Amino acid sequence: MSSDSKRNSFNLQNDDVEGEKILTEPIYPSGFVKGTILKIDLRMLPLLGLLYAIAIIDRTNLGIARTAGMEADLKLNIGDRYSIASMIYFIPYILLQLPGNLALRWLGARTWLTVCVVGWGVAQVGMGFVKTWGQLCIARVFLGVFEAGFFPALVFIITTWYKRHEVQTRLAIFYLISIMLNGFSSLLAYALTLLKGKGHLAGWQWIFVIEGLMTIILGILAFFFVPDFPDKNRFLTSEQTKVILDRVERDRGDSMPDEITLGKILTHLSDWTLWAYALMFMCSTMPAYAIGFFITTILHAMGYSTTMALILTAPPYVFATVSCFLFAILSDKTKKRALWLSVQACIATVGLLLTAYAKPSGVRYFGLFLTTAGTSGCVPSVLAYQANNIVSHSKRAVWTAVTVAFGGIGGIFATTVYRQKDFPRYLNGIWATIGCQVLIVVLCTALTLNYMAKNKRARDGKGANEGTPGFYYTI
C-alpha cells in the first residue's frame, strides 16, 4: 500500500487538539515507547549536535583568527576584504542545498554526512596554509561546497524520527549543544594561538589546522555511528522500528518516503508559506552569523584586550543555551510556535538596542546576552514551526533545503551590512538586524492567520489540509 493510500485509510477523529491527529488505534506500552525514544535521543542528538557545533565553529572561526593576527598577515583590513572572505563561503552553500537534500536519500545519511564532514575538514586545514587573501577566499568556497548539504540533512533526518510536538525540544537540544560548544570555541582558539611559532606557523594558522583535523576525525567516526532514516536504521529492533514508524504515521501520515519527482518539487516550491519560513530563517541566522563573525571585534572595541575579548565571548552563548532550551520546552508543551518565536525576536531586538546605544560597556555586553539568546532560540523555532506543518518526505526534503539555503543568505546579509567603515559600533548593521526581527513577527502573524483559516475550513468539512484528513496546522 502506498504511503498516500495508507495515510487516507486511517480512521481519524475530529475532536483533536490544534495541530494533532488522534487515531482510533491501540497504543503501545508507554514504558516501551519512552525507552525507544530515549535510545534514539541518546544515539542521535549528542553526535549530531557535536557535528553541527564543529560546522558552526569551522565557518565562524574566521573572526577569531582575524583577532589573533590573520588580519595583519593577509592584509584583510584593506577595503572590504574581510567581509568578502566571510561572504563568499555562502554562495556555494546556498546553491547546493537542494541538490544535497535530494542526494541524501540516494546515498544514505551515513555516507552523505561523512563526505560532507571530511570534505569541509580538509578545506579547513587548507585555510591554515593560505598565504594571500585570494587563497583564503578559494578555501572558503570549498568550505561552503561541503557544508552545503550538511545542516539541511541533519534537520531532515531529525524531523523524520519524531512526532510534531516533540520536534522543537529535540532540535533545541541538538542546536544548544552546538551553541554551548561554539561559545567556548574562542577559548579553544586562544589556547591554539599559544602554539604560535611551532612548525613555522602563526597562532591563527594553528586554529584552522587543529580544528580542521578534529573535523576530519569526527567525519570518519560519523560513518560508523550516525543513524539513518527510521526505515533504514540498523540500531533499533524491528519492533522498536515499527513503534517509531507507527507513531509518525499516526501523527502526520508520512512515516514512509514518497517518490521525489520534478512535478512534486515544482508544486512544493509554489507554496507561498515556504518562502515565508525561508525569510524567517534568514532573519534568524543573519544576527547569529553577525555575532559569530563580529562579537570578538565588538568586545575589543569596547576596550577589552584581545585575551579578554576571546574569554568574554563564551558567557552569552551559555545564557543562550539555557534560554533556547526553556523556550523549546514551552513551545512543545503549549503546542504553540508563532507566539514563542515572536517573543524571542523581541528579546533580540531589546538586546540589539542596548548594544547599540547604551553608554556603559557592561550594559552593552548584557545586550549581547539578550541578542545571542533571542536569535539563537529563533533558529530551532523556525525549523520546528516549518517541520510541524509539512506532510510527505518529498516536501520535507525540498522545504528544508530551501529554508536552510536562506540561512546562507542571512550569512551574506550579515557580512555585508556589518561593514568595516562602521567599526566600532556597527549601527547600520544593528538596525538591519532589528529590521529582521520585526519581519519575523510580521510573518508569524501572516502564517497564524492563514493557518487558522485553513484549520477552520478543514473542521467545517470543506477540505483536508495537506491532502490528509484529520491533519491540522500547528499555529
From TrEMBL:
Q: Where are the transmembrane segments?
A: 44-62, 82-104, 111-129, 141-161, 173-192, 204-226, 274-302, 308-331, 338-358, 364-385, 397-418, 430-452
Instruction: Reply yes or no: does the keyword Transmembrane apply.
Output: yes
**Source species:** Macrolepiota fuliginosa MF-IS2
* Any one Gene Ontology cellular component term annotated for this protein: membrane
Q: Which GO terms describe its molecular function?
A: transmembrane transporter activity
Q: Which residues form the Major facilitator superfamily (MFS) profile domain?
A: 44-453
How does the UniProt record describe the way this protein sits in the membrane? Multi-pass membrane protein
Where does it localize? Membrane
**Name of protein:** MFS general substrate transporter
- Output the superkingdom of the source species: Eukaryota
Any single Pfam family the record assigns to this protein: MFS_1
**Entry-linked PANTHER family:** MAJOR FACILITATOR SUPERFAMILY (MFS) PROFILE DOMAIN-CONTAINING PROTEIN, PERMEASE-RELATED
UniProt entry keywords in alphabetical sequence: Membrane, Transmembrane, Transmembrane helix, Transport
Q: Which InterPro entries does its entry note?
A: MFS (IPR011701), MFS_dom (IPR020846), MFS_trans_sf (IPR036259)
